Amino acid sequence: MFQINNSMLIEPRKLTWPYGWCGHIPFVSWLIEEQRPNVIVELGTHSGNSYLAMCQAVAENGIGTKCYAVDTWKGDEHAGNYDEDVYNQLFKYHNEHYAAFSNLMRMTFDEANTYFSEKSIDLLHIDGFHTYDVVEHDFKNWLSKMSENGIVLFHDINVRERNFGVWKLWEELCTQYPNYEFKHSHGLGVLFVGKASLSILIERLKTESVNSDALVAKMFARLGELIFLKTHLDVNENVSQNKLNIDIGQEIDRVKNLIENKQNEIIHHTDQLVKTVTEHFSSSVKKNELIELKLDIQQQLIKKLTEHIDYTNDSIQSNLKVQQQLLNKIIERNSIWNIQPLRFFSLVLKGQKKEAIKPFKKAIRSLLRRLYYKFPSKWQPALLDWAIKVHPSWFKNHPRVLLNKKK
């Protein structure tokens, strides 16, 4: 009567491509709990999915089993050739979790055969090169090492391509030994070569009817399929996560480049602004010098007009006209001189010089005020402080000046 146990519901801790053996992990775990073997040997381990699952079942059931994995870890025509990373990853994980009762034997199957005594192996898994001649040689060479409890597992009994010949040997052996087989996941043959092992087949695996046997096989196939699907989901999730990480990394790089470009633009615009402000200050200074120069010219003209005050009215008007034309040519260069010249000269002649230059001061202040409000607000306090230092008399009633006096 079929016996259900906890190990058939195993959740493998470590699975690595290729995943062809994953579908049989529930059965081999069930078998180890039921058989409780003293020695397990695997011929052909590759990335270690089947072997690590057997080691996990041994550890979780607390069995004092000794486990051995035999492989050259160089690959072959059927498994494909692979580099040292396959062995190195398996070696690292194996030593971290199962080194207390397990060994990886890096050698050929024939070389490893000499290290085992007759009738010492309880569970043998043959999964090496899959041609008929090679797998037949492996079985016959290791048969004498099997104990009275001996069970031999053959993988790929359901593969009939690429010169695989396990199926042919399996059909021959089924006529010689009690057996059980699974067709899913490339097929797994279970050969009971030890007399004592028959109790597992008859009392714990087989049922009372063919239909029930088929149901048990289907149950293990479904359990294996769950592991296989979970493996693919995990792989796809890892691939998606890796792709997401790459996309995030690329987006971060793009944003970094964008920020860097914007920073460079800001630096460039700041430099341009500083240059513009500097030029503007220089221009303002030059305009002030020009104003002073023009005031000097006006004063000289006034002196000359005073010296000729006794001229006749016609002569004075003529001279004034000439002087007016001269002034017009000078002041055409700057809109600040669009002030009534006759009124200016009239006030000067009357001795009201301060009154005469008031329009100039007013025009200059208006120009500076317009320039001041064209600057960004964050620059205005500094410009105001500069202007107060340059011409304090213009700002004697300014709120900032009055506030500083109170302090």
Question: How would you explain this protein's 3D organization?
Answer:
With 407 residues, the protein is an alpha/beta fold. The protein has a domain at 6-206: 3-Layer(aba) Sandwich (Rossmann fold). It has 13 helices and nine strands. It has helices at residues 25-35, 49-61, 84-97, 109-113, 132-143, 166-174, 198-205, 210-307, 313-331, 341-349, 353-374, 380-390, 399-406, and strands at 39-43, 66-71, 75-76, 80-81, 102-106, 121-126, 146-155, 179-182, 188-192. A seven-stranded mixed sheet has the order 5-2-1-6-7-9-8, with helices on one face. A two-stranded antiparallel ribbon has the order 3-4. The longest helix is centred in the middle third of the chain and has 98 residues, at 210-307. It is rod-shaped, with a radius of gyration of 51 Å. Residues 333-339 have low confidence and may be disordered.
Question: What does the average pLDDT come to?
Answer: 79
Radius of gyration: 51 Å
CATH superfamily of the domain at 6-206: Vaccinia Virus protein VP39
Shape: rod-shaped
| Helix/strand order | HEHEEEHEHEHEHEEHHHHHHH
CATH topology of the domain at 6-206: Rossmann fold
